[in-house]
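Quick start: read one record
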Amino acid sequence: MRDSSGRAYLPAPTAAWEPALTTYDVAQPPATWSKRLRLAGLAVHVYTASGSVLALLIVVAAFDGDAIRALWLGLVALVIDGTDGMLARRLRVKQTLPMFDGARLDDIVDYLTYAFAPMVLLWTGGYLPEGVGGALLAALPLLASSYQFCRVDAKTDDHLFLGFPSYWNVVAFYVIVLGLGQLATALILVACTVLVFVPVRYLYPSRTVVFRQLNLALTAGWMLAYAVLLSQMPDPHPVVVALSLVYIGYYAALSVYLTVRRVSRSVRAA
């Protein structure tokens, strides 16, 4: 601006020059809280990454011939995987640490704890045939899971898994707890490998909206049964075994129901 003599000058600051504070601005925490959120987000990523260490310990336990210790470690990995996503969403890690891909980290850890380590456990425990046959059987889940974890549509928009979600750790758990033979183990591995490529939509216990509270409660009950069965080994109580298998049946039935419902809706929409 210029005065009456033509000289330029800057006007004195007034309230009109000050940016208006919005409700959003007022609601923002001070810088110290922002740093705390970033540190909390980093802690969540470390929490997720600890699963890779558990995978190593499971492999070590497998080579030590201690399957029960390996399964206990697998339970800890399950707990971490079941809770890290909720923590990440609550602490808004995508916003506070946008340069870090937590989903990729989660996939890497899940592959190690859900696929690689369980196959090592079955291989070293003698649940697979010796020689080339056993090697091929162990390779099937690993190859199928490599495909599964690289699918961009592996997790659907409605929070379901497309195809068998590589729960080889659960397979290994029941093979060991039930003392299944090599033939039964081989058949289960082949069947689940095929199911990876079948477009059935499987329950995502911590995120699927349908019956979410029931799903969470039953999943927690199953994990409790998992711990009880391990504490009872080598003689697990048949009732506890049956109760844990009821959850597996519920999981499978609800997954089929959700798949059929989705197909029906697509047909009606067409």
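The two ends are 65 Å apart (CA to CA).
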